[in-house]
Amino acid sequence: MAVTDGPGAKIKPAVKRPSEEFAAYCEAEFERRLNSGESFSETQYRKAMAMVLDRLSRLETEGRP
Predict the structure, then answer these.
(1) Which end of the chain is less enclosed by CB atoms within 10 A, N or C?
(2) Inter-residue contact 53 to 22 (CB < 8 Å)
(3) 15: left (phi over 0), alpha (psi -120 to 50) or beta
(4) Under a CB-based contact definition with an 8 Å cutoff, are residues 47 and 4 in contact?
(5) What is the per-residue DSSP string for 9-65?
(6) Is the pLDDT higher at 18 or at 11?
(7) pLDDT score, position 22
(8) What's the pLDDT tens digit per position in 13-51?
(9) Is the Cβ–Cβ distance between 30 and 45 less than 8 Å?
(10) Rounded to 5 degrees, what are φ and ψ at 49?
(11) For the whole model, what pTM was predicted?
């Protein structure tokens, strides 16, 4: 039996947008920084993250037909 045979053969893996992947990375990095014991500005981190996510979202929207 081929790998493509079976009950899950028709399900396509979900494709994440770059903004979704970046947001997931940022959340993991945020947790890593919190747990590192080193100080960092949570406010500046979140602000920078929001700025990049906003730009990525706009680029994704503009790039769609």
Answers:
(1) C
(2) yes
(3) beta
(4) no
(5) TTPPPPPPPHHHHHHHHHHHHHHHHHHH-----HHHHHHHHHHHHHHHHHHHHHT--
(6) 18
(7) 94
(8) 777 889 999 999 999 999 999 999 999 999 999 999 999
(9) yes
(10) -60, -45
(11) 0.68
Residue 63: pLDDT band with limits 50, 70, 90: confident
Burial (CB count within 10 angstroms: exposed 0-12, middle 13-18, buried 19+), residue 62: exposed
Residue tagged 């947790």 (tokens): 31
Residue 65, pLDDT above cutoff 70: no
Contacts 24+ apart (CB under 8 A), 26-33: 26/53
